[in-house]
Automatic annotation (TrEMBL):
Record SUPFAM superfamilies: NTF2-like
InterPro entries: DUF4440 (IPR027843), NTF2-like_dom_sf (IPR032710)
Domain DUF4440 per the UniProt entry, residue ranges: 4-109
Protein name in the entry: DUF4440 domain-containing protein
Any Pfam family hit: DUF4440
Amino acid sequence: MEVIIEQEIALHQFEVRQDKVEIERLIHPDFREVGRSGNSYDFKSIIRMMEAEKPSNVQVHSQNYECVALDPTVQLLTYETALIDDSGQVSNFTKRSSIWVLVGEFWQLKYHQGTPCDVFAIKISGKGA
């Protein structure tokens, strides 16, 4: 599901995370997350967290996307991320999973989890980097 992958990558971008209209389109009102830290978030707390973010030179690199249909209107997306700073230092290797639901004509993120993982090889490509 290319559109879900594109939307997931969009949520990694500071500009999107600062656009309340776009966030309300992309994130389901019943959203839940278990973050990489082990902390839990809901829609309101994730919005507050995004509003408090400052611009950064750190990029979210993502790769190895797999999408599995749990139902025609529910998709499980799994992938890996790492943070890359402007000096090329790589950190925060994470396995991620997201559940996207079709609401009307739009896919919305309803659940997300990040789990720290061992270092993996970074694949540089045009998509998700």
